[in-house]
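Annex B. Sample input.
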Amino acid sequence: MKPSTADLKSLHHLPQTRPRDFRSKSGTRIIDLLVPLMHPKFVSESAAMYHELRMRGTSRTIYLLVCCLLIGAGLLSRAPVLGLPPVVAKSSGSVIWGAMVYVAVASLIPIQPLLRRTAITALIAIATEFSQLVHFGWLDAFRRTTFGVLLIGRFFSWWDIVCYLAGIAIAMGIDRLMTSRRRPPRGHERSVSTPRPTSGLSSSGER
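Annex B, continued. Sample output.
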């Protein structure tokens, strides 16, 4: 069956699809999106972000290990084997407890600034000490246990708050020193760059 003249005319009037040129509007948009990805500033920021994520996992592991060591040191300071005077044992244990709380907070939020972690730790320590002024039956029973005494204490004392803040300050100072040593030297991320594309005008001018 041969096609009729009407069918040929209808096919002739159908919209013809032309292959899209890469230099079309959509192609130009793709180029505009890809060009910033090759910018040296974007590359340096990506390298810095990768380094920060890598350091975050390493820092969390280190903080957890130090936290376990401080818990052991706090238990050892209260042990009768050392024969420390009660005042020294209690004060040293409170200083170690403050440092331990700082390290625990830093392991949870290692990406936060140093001063923010210190402020959060200080608030936790002060709130814990003031919570000893609150008395409930179940809470007092928990305080009489060994774990309760070591965790939240039993009697309120302003001297304990001073020891907590001293331990937090010591831990924060050591953390600041270690963080500055682990941080890459300034300009390290800037070393990662891409060659700048030469424009057509400059290349034609050189010719």
